[in-house]
């Protein structure tokens, strides 16, 4: 049982991150304007600033992170990963599920 609980506790030390729709589909100017309007500080208008900061905090605390930003950017048409609103589409969920399963199965 010690091996099982050890393996189970390792799963809880993992985080999956994927970009927001605006980060992928908006131009730099559009994204900066939107973030500033929402009250984010100017340095946060860097397209992936928030992910980088969150990832750094997780890793500093021993949490393994799967950052799916590159997977989303690599898509020929990343728009198909999202619904009309900000939620993931079926294709987006399939991509996240596939990569998450691979990530959790890594030793």
Explain the layout of strands and helices:
Blueprint: H1 2-11, E1 14-17, H2 21-25, H3 28-37, H4 49-60, E2 64-67, H5 69-73, H6 90-105
Parallel strand pairs: 1-2
Structure description:
The chain is mostly helical and about 110 residues long. Helices cover about 55% and strands about 5% of the residues. The chain has helices at about 1-10, 20-25, 30-35, 50-60, 70-75, 90-105, and strands at about 15, 65. It has a two-stranded parallel ribbon. It is flat, with a radius of gyration of 16 Å. It starts with a helix and ends with a helix. Mean pLDDT is about 85; it is low at about 1-5.
Question: TL;DR of this structure?
Answer:
The chain is mainly α and 107 residues long. The chain has six helices and two strands. Helices cover 54% and strands 7% of the residues.
Strand order of the largest sheet: 1-2
As a percent range, the share of helical residues equals 40-55%
Count of strand segments: 2
Terminal CA distance: 18 Å
Shape: flat
Strand percent estimate? 5-15%
Order of helices and strands: HEHHHEHH
Helix-strand makeup class: mainly alpha
Helix count, DSSP H or I runs of 4 or more residues: 6
Q: Which value, in Å, is the CA radius of gyration?
A: 16 Å
Integer average pLDDT: 86
Largest sheet: 2 strands, parallel
Residue runs with pLDDT of under 50 for 5 or more positions: 1-6
